[in-house]
Amino acid sequence: MQSIRQCVKQLASYSKSAINRTSILSSATNFARTPTCNIHISAICRTDLRNYKTPNRFLNYNKTIFPPQKPGEERRPAYVCHMKPNIKYSPKKMWYIAGFVRGMTVDEAVKQLSFMYRKGAAIAKEVILEAQRLAVEEHNVEFKSNLWVAESFCTKGIVIKGLRRHARARRGVVHYRYCHYFVRLEEGPPPKHYYLPHPKTGEELLNNWMEQLHMRKIPNSL
Asked: What ranges make up the beta strands (E) of the chain?
């Protein structure tokens, strides 16, 4: 296939007859319409994510069958696991949002995520609301507000490599990263301190500091 520059050179060298000009211009038009290189097309546009396996083992926790509880035993709270795979978002950015809502009630998590102007916040809010709906419809949770975020984390998904054009015919690699977001809602009120050990009070911190000062020793002394 001739390039446009070659067609222009041939047009200048040929005679000024209408037949030659028409044939050469038609070949140049066909070249412009027919793409000879798809280097500008991103690899992410030509990739079908359905060919990749998604982590579905986390949803198997919803199928767990527990034995009947004994009389007087503490009631086992209901829970629901939900996930969203292949999110076009960086897992490092999603990690902060996943840890932010961990340990909150569902209403508080949805309220906080509504004021975060991040793409991952909108995705996490959507997944939490879907999990809340599944808890009421499929897992016999009586009150949808009586839920809290027991687990919230993300994992790394597929990474698609694309080509980025640079000057002087050089090439660069661009990575299109995906992530998977997982959430588990549990029935009941959230714990007072989600992370153990719980944060110490000011008096406890002062006592620990004074104890460390009293236990100091001078090296190479009697």
From this structure: 79-87, 147-165, 171-187
Q: Which helix (H) or strand (E) holds 47?
A: none
Beta carbons within 10 angstroms of residue 84's beta carbon: 18
CATH number for the domain harbouring residue 186: 3.90.470.10
For the segment 154-209, what is each residue's pLDDT rounded down to a tens digit? 999 999 999 999 999 999 999 999 999 999 999 999 998 898 888 889 999 999 99
Number of structural domains the chain divides into: 1
Full residue range of the structural domain in which residue 134 is found: 54-62+77-192
Beta-bridge partners for 105: 148
Provide the 10 A C-beta neighbour count for residue 81.
21
Predicted structure pTM score:
0.71
